[in-house]
Amino acid sequence: MFDHPVTFALVVFALSIAAYIPMSDAFGPSAWKGVGPFQVQISCVFLYLLYFLAGTWLGARGIDRSAVLPRARLPGIGGRGSLRARHPTPG
Q1: Cα gap 8→71, rounded to integer Å
Q2: d(CA 20, CA 41)
Q3: Which of 5, 22, 2 is nearest to 81 (CA)?
Q4: What is the total count of domains within the chain?
Q5: Helix (H) or strand (E) holding 73
Q6: Cβ-based neighbour number of residue 84 at 10 Å
Q7: Whole-angstrom distance, CA of residue 53 vs CA of residue 48
Q8: pLDDT mean over 11-17
Q9: pTM
Q10: What is the pLDDT of residue 70?
């Protein structure tokens, strides 16, 4: 369905806006609810669900079809929007 990583990122971004704004308007951007030691920001509940499902979907595709592998299209665009972090490796 989303074979192009930029399309997937744009869809997740649009869904993030659609999930956050109504909840933020209804409950406020900084309202928290807790049960025992567990706390959750109410306006972000649907964001948590969205990102969990997006990660599950990406994981189900398999590591060999990842959007951030060196041979994938997204890191290949270099400074124009690569999501690959560049961390120094020890020794």
Answers
A1: 18
A2: 11
A3: 5
A4: 1
A5: helix 73-76
A6: 14
A7: 9
A8: 93
A9: 0.66
A10: 54
Instruction: Give the residue from 69, 71, 67 showing the smallest Cα distance to 7.
Output: 67
* Look-up of token digits 């592998």: 69
Task: Note down the domain range covering 48.
Answer: 5-74
Q: Tokens 């109410």, residue? A: 42
* 3-state helix/strand/coil string of 21-64: HHHHHHHCCCCEEEECCEEEEHHHHHHHHHHHHHHHHHHHHCHH
**Please, are residues 22 and 43 in contact by the beta-carbon 8 Å criterion?**
no
Residue 81 located in a structural domain: no
Residue 88 located in a structural domain = no
Asked if residue 21 belongs to a domain, the reply is yes
Report the alpha-carbon distance of residue 70 to residue 73 in Å, rounded.
8
For residues 32 and 42, the answer to whether their CB atoms sit within 8 Å is: yes
